[in-house]
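Example record used in the benchmark description.
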Amino acid sequence: MTDRMAVVVLDAGHGGNDPGAVGPKGTREADINLAVVERIRVELERQGIRAEVTRDGDTFVSLQDRAARANAANAAVFISIHCNSAANSEAHGTEVYFCTGSRRGEALARAIHGPLIKAGGLFDRGVKGAGYYVLRHTKMPVALVELAFISNEKEERLLRDEAFQAKVAKAIAEGIMEYRERRPV
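Model output (structure tokens):
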């Protein structure tokens, strides 16, 4: 493939000395993010798309380095995977963010959101614009996925489940492929 879409950068949020949120049963967000990113990478490579990762182990990578790696790779899209958390243990659902004002980022987020909601079966918290660092400092369209609430015991259990991880990873890969087929000029 000569098209830039052949390169996708996948970011497993947190890692190393930054475990991210920790669920009631001790599940570390960084570990879930990494497991899901690896599954997405495999799905994309099956489709002939080269996927690079910002980390491939339990290591710390700064937000600046995550954005810089995506920019240096000249990637077509950047996908950052996270688990949500809230003080209210009843908070639940899935949401996808894009950089506020980015038409292409919004199209990418929406392409991922549809299959992800269908596959995950969780409450739909929507597609939202935001100004998170990795959304603002990457040169390509970017989507930040909040898979589920690790602070919610039921959703924490799902996040640990390998079958659930496989379903959401496949859905995210499908969304990337859908974006590839109809991406805005």
